[in-house]
Design brief:
The chain is mainly β. The chain has one domain (2-301): monomeric porin ompg (Porin, Beta Barrel), CATH 2.40.160.40. Helices cover 3% and strands 60% of the residues. The protein has one helix spanning 2-10, and strands spanning 40-52, 57-70, 74-92, 107-127, 132-143, 148-164, 168-183, 191-205, 210-221, 225-227, 230-232, 238-251, 254-265, 290-301.
């Protein structure tokens, strides 16, 4: 995995496997200021691939595309992405039990998937005024490494532009989140969570070609459900996501982005079982509660 991360940073391509639904900067954008209400379109994409063979045997593929259509009153936006990373590691297999490795027949090469995620999401913002908007969003995806075979859901809420100037802006959102999750771990029941959501984010213009944006999001469950053998009461499933990202224009439609995200889940998904070794009855471990993502990316803007 260290080799994958190293090659990824060299190629400026993020390779991550988070344990939660991805939470990106999703504040309401400014409506188009064209008095004719002409629509403004934006689109960008990322695509990366890494392949090594020989002593280091790895394969990594990552792709992402996003776009939006904005008028004075309405903005429609969407995003989809996929990440897959697989590596082959060399392990010892003392087949005859003599405590030593006697030959190539006791050296195994085992393939492992180290990142596997896909997602898609769409959002609509309707601007009631220059500062106030209502919005709705839907999403679907999977992250088997984090124990999530499939997740989908939606959100609704209101957004308010707290401050806007030439140098920086600050936005806040309050709303409701519904999420359904199917888990990889055998015997783990699906859950349906209803949560209150709060979000605060903004951006700053550091120079003509460089900008920064940051966000913090909190979700807390409003219903009771069972997860990994534990009954979660109201407020027990707290999720906090936060991040910061720096973007700078390199040339034309090509930009460089560097970001850091941290994700906390008080009640994470059950951990997938190991190949050929099921969990004992009554034992169902869970994934890590904290994930961090550090990424460096080249972005190509189409529109």
């Amino acid at each position: 995995m260290k080799n994958i991360l190293l090659h990824s940073l060299i190629l400026l391509t993020p390779v991550v496997a988070s344990a939660q639904v991805e939470a990106k900067y999703e504040g309401p954008r400014e409506a188009a200021k064209d008095a004719t209400n002409e629509a403004v379109y934006k689109a960008s994409g990322q695509l990366g691939a890494i392949l090594t063979t020989g002593n280091a045997d790895t394969r990594t593929i990552i792709g992402k595309i996003e776009g939006s259509r904005t008028t004075k009153k309405l903005m429609l936006s969407g995003e989809a992405g996929i990440t897959n990373a697989r590596s082959t590691i060399i392990t010892a297999n003392d087949a005859n039990g003599n405590g030593t490795i006697d030959g190539e027949n006791e050296i195994d090469r085992v393939g492992q998937t180290t990142a596997e995620e896909w997602y898609g999401k769409a959002r609509g913002d309707y601007f009631l005024s220059e500062r106030l908007s209502v919005w709705g969003a839907a999403r679907i995806g999977a992250n088997p490494i984090a124990g999530k075979e499939l997740y989908y859901g939606g959100q609704i809420g209101v957004a308010y532009l707290v401050h806007k100037s030439e140098k920086y802006s600050l936005r806040a959102e309050l709303g409701y989140d519904y999420t359904h999750e199917d888990f990889v771990a055998p015997g783990a029941d699906s859950i349906d969570s209803h949560s209150a959501r709060g979000w605060l984010g903004g951006d700053a213009k550091l120079s003509d070609d460089t900008g920064m944006k940051a966000y913090a999001e909190a979700l807390v469950n409003l219903n009771e459900y069972d997860l990994a053998g534990t009954t979660l009461a109201l407020g027990d499933d707290l999720r906090v996501n936060a991040g910061i990202e720096l973007n700078t224009k390199i040339r034309g439609n090509i930009s460089f982005s560097f970001g850091f995200d941290v994700k906390y889940d008080k009640a994470p998904a059950p951990r997938p079982a190991f190949d050929g070794l099921p969990y004992a009855a009554g034992f169902l471990p869970v994934a890590e509660t904290v994930d961090t993502v550090t990424k460096a990316t080249l972005i190509i803007t189409f529109l």
